[in-house]
UniProtKB/TrEMBL annotation, chain A:
Residue spans crossing the bilayer: 195-214
Gene name for this UniProt entry: TMED4
Keyword vocabulary terms for this entry: Endoplasmic reticulum, Membrane, Signal, Transmembrane, Transmembrane helix
Family: Belongs to the EMP24/GP25L family.
Organism of origin: Catagonus wagneri
Protein name: Transmembrane p24 trafficking protein 4
Residues annotated as domain GOLD: 39-160
From TrEMBL, chain B:
Keywords: Endoplasmic reticulum, Membrane, Signal, Transmembrane, Transmembrane helix
Record-linked Pfam families: EMP24_GP25L
Primary location: endoplasmic reticulum
Subcellular location(s) of the protein: Endoplasmic reticulum membrane; Endoplasmic reticulum-Golgi intermediate compartment membrane; Golgi apparatus, cis-Golgi network membrane; Membrane
Residues making up the signal peptide according to the UniProt record: 1-25
Membrane topology according to the record: Single-pass type I membrane protein
GO cellular component: endoplasmic reticulum membrane; endoplasmic reticulum-Golgi intermediate compartment membrane; Golgi apparatus
Family matches, as SMART domains: EMP24_GP25L (SM01190)
PROSITE patterns (UniProt xref): GOLD
Similarity comment: Belongs to the EMP24/GP25L family.
Name by which UniProt lists this protein: Transmembrane p24 trafficking protein 3
Sequence ranges assigned to domain GOLD in this UniProt record: 37-119
Amino acid sequence: MAGVAAGRRRAMGLRALLLFALCAAGARGLYFHIGETEKRCFIEEIPDETMVIGNYRTQMWDKQKEVFLPSTPGLGMHVEVKDPEGKVVLSRQYGSEGRFTFTSHTPGDHQICLHSNSTRMTLFAGGRLRVHLDIQAGEHANNYPEIAAKDKLTELQLRARQLLDQVEQIQKEQDYQRYREERFRLTSESTNQRVLWWSIAQTVILILTGIWQMRHLKSFFEAKKLV
Amino acid sequence: MGSATPRSASVLLLVLLLQVERPRGAELTFELPDNAKQCFHEDVEQGVKFSLDYQVITGGHYDVDCYVEDPLGNTIYRETKKQYDSFTHRAEVKGVYQFCFSNEFSTFSHKTVYFDFQVGDEPPILPDMGSRVTALTQMESACVTIHEALKTVIDSQTHYRLREAQDRARAEDLHSRVSSWSVGETVALFVVSFSQVLLLKSFFTEKRPVGRAVHS
């Protein structure tokens, strides 16, 4: 009885450690440098009901040692996500290492902005930050080992689940494409209408102005007794 | 219950071992202000093939400068004023490779640039799939084939989405320009016609004498 409980606790502990290791592995990779108060924005063009997961890790430049410190407690990054209409979806401050998630409710360009607002930076003049960033959207955001462990899927079932997720992403993207094409068509038709009406209006204005000019000058010359 | 523990343990061990060389990919769209340059860096192992695809989505003449440098500082790729391109390279030196996009030639148009940087091959969805000793069954081979085909479909969709975004940006630009140009032209028309009439009238108007000659 005690052996079964201990075995279950060990399995849970191992699973927790596994998830932690996988999460920690995701925050490495591509990095870039930003200044102290600089804001860096990224755009994700995604269809409806798509989950986006972002992992980041920041390192601060140490001027004395001329190296990037491995980790700096007290360093904060502010993450702001705006939807295509400009409404703020997510606006939170995270630590020097963080993970943010949001799901889109309208299709289109979502803007993800990161900036550091740590006041400690003023002590290190000319501070630069190294930001490791990883943004995954849609099917790429799924963590398959975690899904396999949670739903107890065999390898073949997991492959089938991956294929289902991919197909779902393709379908969402196609719906989004239909919506985009409709917008494009409306814009083009509106431009067509505008060009047509403005051409007519400008021709009419030109003719009327010409008539007014001639009549005004004719009456002017008649008054001057030149005509 | 008893079988879950060694399975989780072996998966954990493999994940920790794979931490050293986990293939990565980054697909980002960012804004590049005018007269600015932005660089990205990634650690690449020796012998690993990486590829960089980039495309300018909005802004100006839809072109950008791009260069890629290896850890020793040599420029392994450099292109100026390109709209889109694809570059693959096998890393000869282990270290940090950097690739930069520059909009320094433009004075007033900021650009939106999309890039896709892939390092190595795609990792298997379960870490222990990479170390199997038996061949794949027919079902598993079929799954792999379908997965690869779907990846091609998704890449093609991304490609068309980017081209469509570019075309739509141009169409919306044209739409707003038509209105402002029409209003401007109408105003110019009125101004020119009024000033023509006034100028013509001034030719035929006698100038008032400044002072009458005094007859003695």
